From TrEMBL:
It comes from Strongyloides stercoralis (Threadworm). Residues 127-142 have a biased composition (Low complexity). Transmembrane segments: none annotated. Residues 13-110 form the Yippee domain. Keywords: Metal-binding, Zinc. It comes from the Eukaryota. GO terms for molecular function: metal ion binding. Residues 111-142 are annotated as: Disordered. This is Protein yippee-like. Belongs to the yippee family. InterPro entries: Yippee, Yippee/Mis18/Cereblon, Yippee_fam.
């Protein structure tokens, strides 16, 4: 088995696997919070990372027939939702290629601003002028 590669999208509000705290997505990726899964409330997200996907299967749901894949946390293998591959009803096609995460199987946590990507949080990078540095380089620059 090779190395496990974990992705992170950042964000002010993050969603992680409830069992192992692996990062999954952030609140900016949420499309809707008005879904229901097998454990109760569920959320529809545009982009979710650190998942494993099952084989595609046909599933008859309240909103019609869909081709879906169950999704599990990449680290602990807990099933946490599903991904819509195809919706037969035209009115349901907005769900295609999006992921449902079940609320009881994930946690919402405080995230952080990205100062390099337009965030309005605290800048963690400090600039040092040449006269303030202990470097032996000239203050005239490079």
């Amino acid at each position: 088995m090779g190395r496990l590669f974990i992705e992170h999208l950042g964000g002010k509000r993050m969603y992680v696997c409830k069992k192992c705290n692996t990062y999954l997505t952030n609140k900016d990726q949420m499309i809707s919070n008005r879904f229901t899964g097998s454990t109760g409330r569920a959320y529809l997200f545009d982009k979710v990372v650190n998942l494993e996907y099952s084989e595609m299967q046909s599933r008859n749901m309240i909103t019609g027939d869909h081709f879906v894949r169950d999704v599990s946390c990449k680290v602990c293998k807990t099933k946490i939702g599903w991904m819509y591959e195809f919706a037969f009803e035209e009115s349901q096609q907005y769900k295609e290629n999006h992921v449902i995460l079940e609320k009881k199987l994930i946690k919402e946590e405080k995230g952080f601003d990205d100062p390099l990507n337009g965030g309005d949080g605290v800048d963690t990078h400090q600039s040092v002028t040449p006269s303030e540095s202990n470097s032996s380089t000239s203050s005239s620059g490079y």
